[in-house]
Design goal:
single chain; two-stranded antiparallel ribbon; globular
């Protein structure tokens, strides 16, 4: 939990008295490039705001990943709309200061890492899709990513397939790491996806005309499926945790996914409690938990309890 840090950045940017909102970014909103020129002072202020938010996201706040992925793209030339979007994230933190990752000891000792991947097709202004993936252990995220895809996908299936290949790389890395640590029983083997077409494409070793344009590097997932190191299974869209990494959601959907992926109050109280907190606490009382469910070209990543947080620019 980063409650003290969040209070500090709210005070630093004069947002400590701001009115709280229930989502970090408005549902369906898209930020576009600024056609005018910002002053140097504005640029530095914006970069400081985004950098402060990014630190919180990398450590304990996966719910900020998509918003930060959108904001950072305009660090060189932010507009007033970008400033307002950044301030909205601070207003969201104002109401969720005590929120963090909650790892539960109630889970079985031999449970494996759960892996989810998703994509938002042609979501960016240049028609590139947004990939998202989320890995959970003991009921809460240990790794999460929100990333703009490097090429323009020609279909929803292709964008989901690209997200699947990206998540598979993280899965393989975690498998090797846990094997070296002598903890292979926790290694992820099943990747959940909510697109049947992408699953069929991954499981089909035959190359044909409709997929020959797909980048060769994406097809490596087929090799791992054939080797048995990875298997892909269907997950209902309503249970897809990685959805929160790919787009701005309505407050009800945002609240549901926050509870499902194991985020809750870690101590203290918030100025304006968010709806997902009450939902999460109710689920805890009823013995329910996130693991009971069926499951911009920069990468924003955090590997909690596995490796120090990092950010890879590509």
């Amino acid at each position: 939990m980063q409650q003290q840090y969040i209070r500090q950045i709210l005070e630093r940017f004069d947002m400590e008295s701001s009115k709280a909102v229930l989502t970090p970014i408005a549902a369906g909103s898209r930020l576009t490039a600024n056609e005018s020129h910002a002053s140097n002072a504005d640029v530095k202020q914006y970069q400081a705001m985004v950098g402060s938010l990014m630190y919180a996201m990398l450590c304990t706040r996966p719910d900020l990943a998509y918003a930060i992925q959108q904001l950072w793209q305009f660090n060189a030339n932010p507009s007033n709309a970008h400033f307002q979007a950044a301030k909205r994230v601070f207003r969201y933190l104002q109401g969720t200061q005590a929120t963090g990752l909650v790892y539960s000891s109630k889970h079985n000792a031999d449970i494996t890492i759960q892996a989810y991947c998703d994509a938002d097709y042609a979501a960016d202004g240049n028609r590139k899709s947004i990939s998202g993936c989320l890995f959970t252990l003991a009921g809460s995220p240990i790794s999460y990513q929100a990333k703009k895809q490097t090429t323009v996908a020609q279909s929803t299936v292709e964008s989901e397939y690209a997200a699947m290949a990206h998540a598979a790389k993280e899965m393989i890395w975690l498998q090797y790491l846990l094997r070296d640590l002598g903890m292979s029983k926790y290694a992820p083997t099943t990747l959940f996806c909510d697109n049947q077409g992408a699953i069929s494409l991954a499981n089909n070793p035959t190359h044909h005309a409709k997929t020959k344009h797909v980048d060769v590097q994406l097809h490596f997932i087929r090799d791992h499926i054939e080797k048995g190191t990875i298997k892909v299974e269907y997950c209902l869209t309503e249970d897809m945790l990685a959805d929160i990494m790919t787009k701005g959601l309505a407050r009800e959907r945002h609240a549901k996914l926050m509870g499902m992926m194991g985020m809750g109050v870690c101590g203290g109280t918030t100025t304006t409690p968010s709806s997902f907190e009450d939902d999460y606490q109710t689920r805890q009382k009823d013995g329910q938990h996130s693991m009971e469910s069926t499951s911009g070209s920069v990468e924003l990543r955090s590997r909690h309890a596995v490796q120090p947080s990092d950010m890879d620019a590509r």
